[in-house]
Specification:
The complex is a heterodimer of chains A (about 525) and B (about 375). Chain A has 21 helices and no strands. By secondary structure, chain A is mostly helical.
Chain lengths: ~525, ~375
């Protein structure tokens, strides 16, 4: 069931109808409606076997939270009136129990993820090309596993009390809009909303619809149209592919990747808004970033913050890294001492980010590229500052700001070489040809030779137009303007006109994607 | 009574969308596609005995006028351009509502049993069906609510006909529509080398041109070289519908030029698919004939019979329709018609003087 379908519209409308109905709302049953809808949706999309895995994740992570609470309660009770030695022993035992439970739950869940997503791919003879033990990779497993693990770690560290109601917790894990592609929400931000009472609010509904429309525009007027062109340019495997064709393919990919992913997230967030549930933002105009580090605070934000909170800081603050930092400070200077642990942590984080995307070499290379560039830029920050001063650059000027944006865009696009050109040797050729065999004419000829995308010129022009629309909206958002509020503040007809234009852009995108043949005979 | 702003926005949006949709449909939805012509003419027919269903291969191959002359029956060609199997199933379902029909002939190529489907063709097919239907809304609902479409974008885009079915010859399209011409007066009749002569049959006078690309073959043009579970499932449905109604279903692989057959893969892929399909249909009790493999003593399909690597022209349709009737009549007379066809690659190749030297004019062994 696609988001853009009559089935999904009816499904959502039915859910909303029941959700906002007075009796349901007044009896505190809205979360039950969401749970039923989520489980139904997951069963429909994932099938029975996938259901088993999400239940295992929900059950084990819920149980972990309850165990931590139970251990903590028992420990607090036991240490009352105990002497110092006893308290010390009690604490040791308590921490050991908690840590053991944490490790077991993490092993179960990450182990399942690894077995299904990675071992099956790396050893097809063992498990089959796509799955472990003949089981299909459960939909959304990467997202709900990370989301559930964040809950486990938070309850382990006592950030908030554990959820006592398993069904409420199951809703947090399985909430249907987010299940396929995130965002990776945090329990303390999402769960209170899921269980709260929500009255009908036009603002949430209107914002949701607008967000959904925007997501469809990105997906169908940009991402889907560009995908086949990108494939034709980047998947030839031809070692003599013109560098100009590669550069064009990568630039188109930068648009397609953003439009596809952020468009999907817009739809997800918009659907949640319809139920007055506000999810974590996952994109914040990433191509306006002024550094690669800034880019990763704007792109797949929830994955970045997850990595920051559960990998980067825990790793960087380990005794080993602290000792390393001291050693570096002593032998390599103060800046190195402060920065190197973070650099190592960043490389680790992005290595994991790469693997999270998939077990293929190009994802790992892409992750490491990002980690190394961020680490390098942190290490070289003082050198860059000295260079800017020596060149009398006004680093606060608008011009320098634009320079940083363009520089970051180039750096990000180099990273897309790793992400999108899957074959190692072809990628090497593409890199080489980008610098040593640009061949603009050859690239144009290659573009002209594309035959499986009919009306290529119109398709590209239209996608470019849609990209401009997204660019303008992004600029407005970057300046802090609430686009939805501004739109709905207008008079009815102009607002309706803008919305209609958005819908028509989506429809034209569909039309161009399914371009038929020529004259009347070829008309179906 | 003051209407709230959200309601005003919604009403204004709806009005704009209806107006824009009407305008875009008028400008872009083609005047007289094959589906619309077929359904309109089909609805005029009475007491049909036989229908031919399938994509353009079928539309150009079975000439109902010749068939009717030779058999004394009444037939109609329900094939349309790019007709996917799901639409064929719908065509058969509609046909079986006519109690007079006792034979359904499915004319396809291997590609039609693969996984690729033209959404445009399917959509236009249903638009044609609904425009010629007495109950258009029911037809609309059948489309959007069917399991094939309900959970997909087609269920929404169905409301916007120009999305999936649009012509690039906009000026001519507007001209025909503004002139209020009958779909049979123009467009098709005046198309280059093609004439719609009625009963769903499109007559093509073009032959494979001298400058044609020898690499344009079924193997190269169509990426799928296998049958898909989806289309085989639909074929099962068609078989079941016909058997339930006591209607004979005949599956025909329409003629392709020899160079297309001989260039299909390098390791016997063509005959592997042929064997699979034959065995599958035999198991289901369905007659199947592959006229690309018809022995030359029964009919020769040379270059003069083809428009391209997969479509026969008018000469080919005449020859093929007669050959088809000959096979049916031979079978009815108790002959073993399997003797009329090649069944192995070696036998087929042996019928050519030089099977490895591919050309548009492949010489047969005398």
């Amino acid at each position: 069931m696609q988001f853009y379908s009559l089935a999904f519209i009816l499904f959502t409308a039915l859910c909303m109808g029941i959700y906002y109905a007075g009796p349901v709302r007044k009896r505190g049953g809205q979360w039950i409606v969401l749970l039923a809808a989520s489980l139904f949706y997951y069963a429909l999309m994932g099938g029975g076997k996938a259901f088993f895995f999400i239940l295992v994740t929900a059950a084990t992570t819920y149980a972990a939270g309850r165990l931590f609470s139970s251990f903590t309660g028992a420990y607090k009770e036991a240490k009352k009136g105990a002497d110092r030695e006893t308290k010390k022993a009690l604490k040791k035992a308590y921490l050991l129990k908690k840590r053991t439970a944490l490790i077991v739950v993490l092993l179960i869940n990450f182990g399942t993820l690894a077995a299904l997503k990675y071992v099956g791919a790396l050893k097809p003879s063992l498990f089959g090309a796509e799955s472990a033990a003949g089981l299909v990779l459960p939909i959304g497993i990467s997202f709900y596993t990370f989301q559930s693990v964040s809950y486990v770690i938070d309850t382990y560290s006592g950030k908030y009390p554990a959820e006592r109601n398993f069904l409420c917790y199951l809703l947090f894990v399985s909430f249907f809009p987010q299940i396929l592609q995130g965002p990776i929400n945090r329990y303390d931000a999402l769960a209170p909303q899921l269980s709260a009472e929500h009255g009908w609010k036009f603002s949430s509904f209107a914002e949701g619809l607008l967000r959904i429309l925007y997501g469809f525009l990105k997906k169908y007027a940009i991402a889907n149209l560009l995908a086949p062109v990108i494939a034709d340019l980047l998947d030839t495997g031809d070692p003599s592919v013109p560098g100009s064709a590669v550069v064009l393919g990568i630039l188109l990919y930068s648009a397609q990747q953003y439009a596809d992913f952020s468009g999907g997230i817009d739809i997800v967030i918009g659907v949640a808004d319809l139920f007055d549930i506000h999810m974590a933002e996952n994109f914040r105009q990433p191509y306006f970033a002024v550094s690669l580090g800034d880019f990763w605070r704007r792109w797949h934000i929830t994955l970045g913050t997850w990595m920051r909170d559960y990998v980067f800081y825990p790793f960087a603050l380990t005794k080993a890294m602290q000792r390393f930092g001291k050693w570096a400070g002593k032998h390599l200077g103060k800046h190195a001492g402060r920065t190197l642990p973070a650099c190592v942590a960043n490389i680790l984080v992005f290595f994991i980010v790469g693997i999270w995307h998939g077990p293929e070499e190009h994802y790992i290379a892409w992750g490491l590229y990002n980690g190394l560039v961020i680490a390098g830029s942190d290490l070289l920050a003082p050198a860059f500052a000295r260079l800017a001063a020596a060149l009398h650059m006004n680093t606060e000027s608008k011009g320098f700001h634009v320079f940083r944006i363009i520089r970051t865009f180039v750096i990000v696009n180099i990273g897309w070489y790793f992400d999108r050109i899957y074959d190692f040797s072809h990628r090497a050729h593409c890199f080489k040809n980008t610098f040593f065999h640009f061949d603009l004419r050859g690239g144009i000829a290659m573009l002209r030779a594309i035959t499986d995308v009919q009306h290529l010129g119109v398709t590209l022009a239209f996608s470019l137009f849609a990209c401009l629309v997204v660019f303008v909206i992004s600029v407005v958002k970057e300046r802090g303007t609430d686009v939805g509020r501004s739109l709905y503040a207008k008079k009815a007809v102009p607002a309706a006109f803008v919305l209609a234009c958005g819908a028509l852009i989506v429809l034209v995108g569909f039309g161009l994607e399914s371009v038929p043949g020529g004259f009347l005979y070829a008309n179906f | 009574m003051r209407i709230s702003k959200p309601v005003r926005i919604f009403i204004a949006w709806l009005l704009i969308m209806v107006l824009a949709n009407s305008l875009m449909t008028f400008v872009f939805e083609p005047h007289a596609g094959s589906a619309e012509v077929m359904w309109t003419d089909f609805r005029k027919e009475k007491n049909l005995d036989t229908v031919f269903v399938g994509p353009s291969l079928c539309m150009q191959s079975f000439n109902p006028y010749i068939y009717n002359d030779l058999t004394g029956q009444s037939s109609f060609n329900m094939a349309t351009v790019g007709q996917p199997m799901e639409a064929t199933r719908a065509a058969v379902r509609e046909a079986l509502k006519e109690d007079s029909i006792h034979t359904v002939v499915l004319g396809i190529g291997f590609y039609d049993l693969g996984d690729t489907k033209s959404k445009n063709a399917e959509f236009a097919f249903y638009r044609g069906l609904r425009n010629a239907s007495d109950h258009p809304v029911l037809t609309d609902l059948e489309f959007v609510l069917s399991p094939d479409h309900f959970g997909k974008e087609e269920s929404i885009n169905y409301l916007f006909p120009w999305v999936f079915n649009h012509t690039k010859y906009v000026k001519d399209n507007i001209k025909f529509k503004l002139a209020g011409k009958s779909m049979l007066d123009d467009g098709w009749l005046n198309g280059t080398n093609r004439t719609y002569i009625g009963k769903g049959f499109l007559s093509i006078t073009a032959e494979i041109p001298d400058g044609a690309d020898m690499n344009d073959t079924s193997w190269n043009i169509y990426p799928n070289h296998d049958f898909s579970d989806r289309t085989m499932g639909v074929l099962d449905d068609i078989i079941a519908m016909c058997q339930e109604k006591g209607v004979d279903l005949i599956v025909v692989n329409t003629p392709h030029p020899p160079y297309d057959i001989l260039s299909y893969g390098k390791n016997g892929e063509y005959f592997a698919l042929e064997d699979r399909l034959s065995a599958y249909l035999a198991e289901k009790g369905v007659d199947y004939y592959n006229f690309s493999l018809l022995k030359p003593e029964y009919a020769v399909f040379d270059r003069s019979c083809f428009e391209d690597f997969e479509h026969v022209n008018d000469t080919g349709a005449r020859r093929f329709t007669k050959a088809f009737v000959d096979v049916l009549q031979a079978k009815a007379a108790g002959q073993d018609v399997s003797e009329m066809f090649y069944h192995t690659e070696s036998d087929y190749r042996a019928s050519f003087v030089n099977p490895d030297a591919l050309s548009f004019d492949m010489e047969r062994v005398e």
